[in-house]
Design goal:
Helices cover 39% and strands 22% of the residues. The chain has 280 residues and is of the alpha/beta class. It starts with 12 loop residues before the first strand and ends with a helix. Bound molecules: adenosine-5'-triphosphate and magnesium ion (MG).
Length: 280
């Protein structure tokens, strides 16, 4: 199924050397990122690390200042949100952008009603059920207002809506941030279903448990730069947190630590003569 090693897949979406500044702020510097079909890539990092900026560059909200983005093997420009959608990159922003007073069907089709001349209520309801069934969503009825749904159900509706355009990459910004334990589990199941459908999933998260539960790969951003990439199945939370905080940020610091350890070992093995003298 999706058991193929991540590294052997050719990426569907690929970023090389992507940078973005806001005035004097370097929000992203030389970012590389690959996402394959049927893969969940978690992007983690501290506040201000550049995660949302990266999402917005991919969603066409911001344009990168430099670097290359390729999709399905071709170089692309993502000039605006409609360019992202027509490429097949869908984004579920953290605020979900659902209308509280409208029901599930109305929210799913808001702005993209099926019939150009009049609302085709029946077709939209059928399509809504079909989508929700594909996601195995637990939503009792599609005619209830969003306001009466739980956080997990809302997340499901927002994800279902983004699937209407038949995307190949879906970006979820903090999909479990405001959810309880059961709802989080529901959304994590949903992410697995997206992967089973062959979508490439980019998931922004602060929660190491969630990341390790569903991601295939973890990409760490720190101060707007890549600061480590890990196999989510084998990495420990401590290693990821260290990369996030910069405690042990890269091979260079690991090498330096190794050299220090070796130097310490050499000096302690030379100590006994001295301490013999001193302890008398
Ligand atoms: N529109 C903007 N104008 C100016 N600076 C911005 C803008 N958007 C982001 N920044 C700056 O870019 C940097 C990266 O911000 P970004 O929102 O991407 O971080 P983040 O990783 O999403 O953080 P958080 O976890 O807090 O959401 C920050 O220093 C931020 O202040
Ligand atoms: Mg953010």
């Amino acid at each position: 199924m999706n058991a193929a090693p991540v590294a052997t897949r050719s990426p569907l979406l690929s970023l090389r050397g992507v940078s973005k500044t806001f005035g004097a702020v370097n929000a992203l510097t030389d970012i590389d990122l690959d996402v394959a079909a049927g893969e969940v890539v978690a992007i983690v990092g501290d506040n201000g690390a550049g995660k949302s900026t990266l999402v917005k560059v991919l969603a066409g909200v911001h344009q990168a200042d430099s670097g290359e983005i390729s999709f399905d093997g071709s170089a692309v420009q993502i000039a605006d949100p409609s360019a992202a959608i027509s490429l097949g990159i869908a984004t579920v922003f953290q605020d979900l952008a659902l209308c509280e007073n409208l029901n599930v069907v109305e929210n799913l089709f808001l702005g993209q009603e099926l019939s150009p001349l009049r609302l085709d209520e029946v077709a939209m309801e059928v399509k809504s059920w079909e989508l929700l069934r594909q996601l195995s969503a637990r939503i009792p009825t599609v005619r209830v207002p969003i306001a009466s749904l739980s956080g997990g159900q809302r997340q499901t509706v927002a994800i279902a809506r983004s699937l209407l355009g038949d995307p190949r990459i879906i970006i979820l910004d903090e999909p479990t941030a405001a959810l309880g334990v059961a709802q989080t589990a529901e959304v994590l199941d949903l992410i697995e279903r997206l992967r089973e459908r062959g979508l490439g999933v980019i998931m922004i998260s602060h929660n190491m448990e969630d990341v390790r539960a569903v991601a295939d790969r973890v990409v760490v951003l720190r101060l707007g730069r890549n600061n480590g990439e890990f196999d989510a199945h084998t990495v420990s939370s401590e290693e990821v947190v260290a990369a996030i905080t910069g405690a042990t940020d890269n091979v260079v610091t690991r090498r330096r630590d190794r050299l220090h350890d070796a130097a310490d070992a050499a000096s302690t093995s030379a100590q006994p003569d001295l301490t013999d003298e001193e302890t008398r």
